[in-house]
Each structure stands twice: as structure tokens, then as C-alpha cells.
Design brief:
The chain has 130 residues and is mostly helical. The protein is built from 7 helices and no strands.
């Protein structure tokens, strides 16, 4: 199963490289962080709608559309030499581990309420450092 996922993720990355390459899609290559904002808002709204309707078949498609935008933003950043999707994933992994010390660092948590309180405390500390 992992090999299959890894292969598909690499295929997705390659598709974005092709779309943004010399023989790629002119529309895709013209997009900017700002030009994609309306798409991002629309897709987030469609996810909310699918969840509210419990339309899980559509939810799968809408989550894919949101992933498309994550890939799009990452590809633009890669072309500008800022970061790529791998960097996004590395940062997300670090954040998840930092914000779940009760799972990854041996901290104790006795309730969901305590976990949320700790999450906000950790997040607030992160914001002060940046």
C-alpha cells in the first residue's frame, strides 16, 4: 500500500512539473499566489458543503481539489526558489509532532479539553518565536 501511495504522490508532483514546464499549460504557468485565492475560497466552501450534506463521494473530489491548490501554491513557490511540496510536508510533520506532545514526546493528557488547551498554548508560543 505504501509503495502505491508513494508512486501516486511522485506522479502528482511530476504532473505539476510538466504543467509548469516549457511545454506545459499556459493558464497554469500564468497563475500567482493571489490569482488562486478565489479558487482556494471556492474549494474550501465546496468541502464545507459536502461535509454538511454528508456527501462523502463529493467530499473525496473536493479534498482532491484542495490538494491541487496546495500543489499549485507549492509549485509556484518552487519556481521562485522559495520552497517546494517536500518542504511543506517537512514543516507539517514538525508541527504535528510539536503540537501532539502527548503522542510523540511522552507528555500526559487526560482529556480532549486538555489536549486542545495545550495545542493553543504551543501554537501561541510558536507565534511569539516567529
Amino acid at each position: 500500500m505504501k509503495k502505491k501511495s508513494k508512486t501516486r504522490f511522485h506522479q502528482l508532483k511530476r504532473i505539476f512539473e510538466i504543467l509548469h514546464g516549457p511545454n506545459g499549460c499556459l493558464w497554469d504557468k500564468k497563475q500567482t499566489y493571489k490569482s488562486l485565492i478565489p479558487c482556494l475560497k471556492e474549494e474550501a466552501g465546496e468541502i464545507v458543503s459536502a461535509v454538511r450534506k454528508k456527501d462523502y463521494h463529493n467530499l473525496k473530489e473536493e479534498v482532491g481539489d484542495l490538494l491541487l491548490l496546495v500543489m499549485f501554491y507549492s509549485q509556484i513557490a518552487k519556481k521562485e526558489g522559495r520552497f517546494d511540496i517536500e518542504d511543506v510536508i517537512v514543516e507539517l510533520i514538525k508541527k504535528l509532532k510539536r503540537r501532539h506532545p502527548h503522542v510523540f514526546a511522552g507528555a500526559k493528557a487526560t482529556s480532549a479539553h486538555q489536549i486542545i488547551r495545550n495545542w493553543h498554548k504551543i501554537k501561541k508560543g510558536e507565534k511569539k518565536k516567529s
